[in-house]
Amino acid sequence: QGQLVESGGGLVQPGESLRLSCTGPGILLEHYAVGWFRQVPGKEREGVSCVVGDDDSAYYSDSVKGRFTVSRDNSKNTVYLQMNSLKPEDTAVYYCAIDRLPMGLRRAKNRLGEDLSTEDFNSWGQGTQVTVSS
To answer: Which end of the chain has fewer CB atoms surrounding its CB within 10 Å, N or C?
Structure first.
């Protein structure tokens, strides 16, 4: 497998929105669940969201639930993370990655609210910086 590519990061003020994109050159993302993670210096990479199919079995961490929405457009081979009502604590480098687990298993884990583990994901992108500051 190749490597995913993230884009859409930037500097915004608190309360504003950003939409991140994740593409997979040479990878058909529709065959995989795709996760979004974020990391700040000195801390572990944190699972933020994960999309499986077009159903409602997406996962969101408690810190972003109700503000972030994950989606996918298979015609564009792209997964999106819409981030609304951004807070300074959302500042981080955001990464997307492919889930190594079967989609059915990930769907079940998402419905149970099980947190994401970086060990279950690969084909990490280089990340895109999101900075929320006034």
So the answer is: C
